[in-house]
Amino acid sequence: MTFIRLVSLYGLYFIACMFAVVTVLQDWSDGTQALFAFVVPGLLVWVGERRRSARKNPKPHKPKPSPERLPVGGSHPLTRGAVGKNASWMEPKYSKGWIPKNETVDIGGRNLGGMIYVGAPPLLSPGGYSKCRAYIDPSLPVTKAGTDMAGNSLPYWPGYSDIPAECRATYLDWLAGGRTDASYNPGYMFLYFYGLERRFLVDRPSDDEKREILDEVLRLQKLYESSGSARRYLGSFIEIAKLDLNDKSLQEPIFENPGWEIPLSLKMTLGASVAAGETLSSDWVLSWLMCHPERNLRTPATRCPEEFKALFKLRFDEKFPGGLKVQTPKKILKESYRAASGEFHVDLSPALDGQPIPDISNLKKPVNIAQKIADQVTDELDKFSRFIGRKPDGRGSLEAQALLPADLRQLFPSAELENLKTWARSRAEAGGLTPVTDVIARLEGGESGKIGKRQLMDAADALARVGFGMAPDPRFSLRTPKADEPVVIFDLGTSVEKLEEVSSRFHEALIELAIGTFVAHADGHFAEAERLTLRNRILNTNGLDEQEQRRLFANLDWLVAVPPNMSLLRQKLKSASLEQQASIRAAVVAIAHADTVVQSEEVAEIEKIYKALGIDPKAAYNDLHAGRVLDGPVAMRGAEPGAPGEAIPPDHSSVISRLDPERIAAIRSDTKRVSSVLGDIFSTDETNDTNGDEPPALSSALAGLSVKHAGLVVEIIERQHWSEEEFLELSGRHELMPSGTLEALNEWAFERYDEALLDEYDGYDVSPNISAALKKEIEA
């Protein structure tokens, strides 16, 4: 019968293949067609018979391993009732393979301490074939020495019976060595932990033994604290173990959570409090946020944890003095602990006085409230955090203390803070002018080779926290003071947390002040009358509060001691509005007349200011002649009925004549002399060298520069940045003075490109736009 069936099947398949050859495979060669027609039917018959045989004689079924579902005994103080259980099948007792803590066993030539499973590994489920990972089977071979400490041959989920002999030897060496060497791959520690986990949750030993196991896992967690997997898996077990042992520490807030979910103990505590109608304190709300998977904590929260917690509590208590009331959710808390070994899991149904505990996991509003407060707190701690980031050992130092928010200074006291106040007060009372190096040394506790903008900002912030200011403030000044220049220390009247928060009028007044002092310095003598005029302008400026006036007075003192330069002023004047232009013009005219004598040098500098503002420089002479700005509306007396023939009031511009025509002419003729007196600092028309010739290749690209300056520019544009030392050496090589050269080059660049060639900040940054344009012109 079998032979007839096979022949019949072959015949049917042969007919089907021949039909395919005739209809579809006509393009194939005759040999290929014949091979297809005779061989393919045989293959089909063979495959069919194998399938038929498999159906008639199936292999014994080996069920896949299934994780054990086990109960957890005991109760947590918050549950006040038994933890629920859900067992899928009766768990056999494997305690006969457990070696107690005070016993030892010899395996593979090594003497091992207890707290391990030894023997033939049991199967994980009835009829299954997967073996318990933790059991050390003495019958398996091991190498003489374990050399795979890095775990290169160790799988992700190791089992003693499944790993290579070399790995088994390495594991036994780690156990025999006291289980204290963290240089071994964490996989070996996990293989040991699988046994501790199984003993605690499956064998259900006495509470004393459970505490021994818990202590051992706590030790392992600390030993492998650099491993994220160890912190997470061991942390989950530790929480379950503490719940089982009614550990009191679970009733405390948690501020570190290596896992991806809110810890069970925290869910139980918060859920029980919410169900009881209690309000949540700041510590519990912060704990909720810190353990929430959607938290967004910026650097200050992690870099300065104690300061962050303290300030969070203060800000939370301000908003919720009686605590935060949370609406009770409808969802009931249910949890399942899955063993790190993957061999079993435990179902939990916590209860409070027999009633289920609500699950707070999905509540959003309390977390959003906490997140907003946390964002506010990290903003306040930002400056302090940045300082600690630069100087990890600087906590408690004078500068660090001064950068703390005012509300935290009493909680984190520092004796040095009062010393800083005393020092700043003495400097302010002595006139304020203090070498900038002294300020940095006082705050940082030593000399600083190079002073950067960030150091100056931190110094200003530190002083402001104790009620004193420093001028100039790098946030607003035209430039930062150099290492050999002074700053002004002054009394702010009160502590200030955010110096950057000023009015727009403060910015405008500061520019007007710089321009006014620039003009006043032009004749080489800053008269007291000119200083009083500028002080009066500050007092009469609308929109300034008392603190901003104090800061402007201090900036005036600094600008008197350290005059501004024109190239930096140009950058500020470019964007001046019409209203600001009128205010600036009024300021410079008032300063020029303040000492009752208008010098030719002052007129020349005022012309430059008018030119930078985009105003015809000739208007300067008209304004100076009238003693005020003339291009605005002139105030006239209101019309009144009077007797016929009454005279028209005289023009205001002719009432006071400060300058006569001869003096105006003299001033106009003095412009070249002024440029000579001021030298390279404020010169806009640079004279050439004595030979009067520029290199022909550079004549078009560098027109307006001397040969020396042109050569310097060619070198400067080859790089994007020059340090102060490099610029000094480069200028000397071209026989030029650095300070005058900087101003001359920037004046020339403003004339041609409407921006500075060199920006002075931690050295000198070269304008990429000008550099690219010059290179293109020179190559052409």
* Overall morphology: extended
Q: How would a crystallographer describe the biggest sheet?
A: 3 strands, mixed
How many strands appear in the DSSP assignment? 15
Low-confidence stretches: 58-95, 630-640, 651-661, 663-699
Query: What structural class do the secondary elements suggest?
Result: mainly alpha
Count of DSSP-assigned helices: 29
Q: What's the N-to-C terminus distance? A: 99 Å
- Rg estimate, integer Å: 43 Å
Mean pLDDT: 79
Notes on the protein architecture:
With about 775 residues, this protein is mainly alpha-helical. About 50% of the residues lie in helices and about 5% in strands. It contains 29 helices and 15 strands. Strands 1-7-6 form a three-stranded mixed beta sheet, covered by helices on one side. A hairpin with a 2-residue loop joins β8 (about 350) and β9 (about 355). α17 runs antiparallel to α18 and α17 (about 505-520) runs parallel beside α21 (about 580-595). Residues about 60-95, about 630-640, about 650-660 and about 665-700 have low confidence and may be disordered.
Q: Quick recap of the structure?
A:
The protein has about 775 residues and is mostly helical.
Main traits of this protein?
three-stranded antiparallel beta sheet, 49% helix, mainly alpha, 15 strands, 780 residues
